[in-house]
Amino acid sequence: MPAPRKYPDELPERAVREVRTTSRPIAHVAKDLGIHKEALRGWVRQAEADAGERDDRLTAAEHEELKQLREEAAELRRANEILKAASAPFAQELDRPRTRPTRRSTA
After folding, report:
1. Which InterPro entries match (predicted)?
2. CATH of the domain at 17
3. With left for phi above 0 and alpha for psi between -120 and 50, is residue 8 left, alpha or beta?
4. pTM reported for the whole predicted model
5. 5 lies in the same domain as 46
6. Mind listing the pLDDT tens digit for each residue in 16-58?
């Protein structure tokens, strides 16, 4: 379950827009808006990555895709463990040596 959001959804967009359009330092904009400067710095970096201006971070779309792939991989691992456990009795049956019944001579 994700952590509750500390800031309203509109605030990051507004803060990033202000930093990018005014070229004011992040710390000053953050102080004016009453947010932590490192939170704003992260928002700005993410906005730059989403705009293709940075290649040292994943875009929001890439983050979402990575999250989905990790969830899918975990689900496949769980399914694989279930299938292994369910097939174990059959594997034991196949591994047993088969013996031929002995013939009794009728003499």
Report:
1. Homeodomain-like_sf (IPR009057), Transposase_8 (IPR002514), WH-like_DNA-bd_sf (IPR036388)
2. 1.10.10.10
3. beta
4. 0.64
5. yes
6. 999 999 989 999 999 999 999 999 999 999 999 999 999 899 9
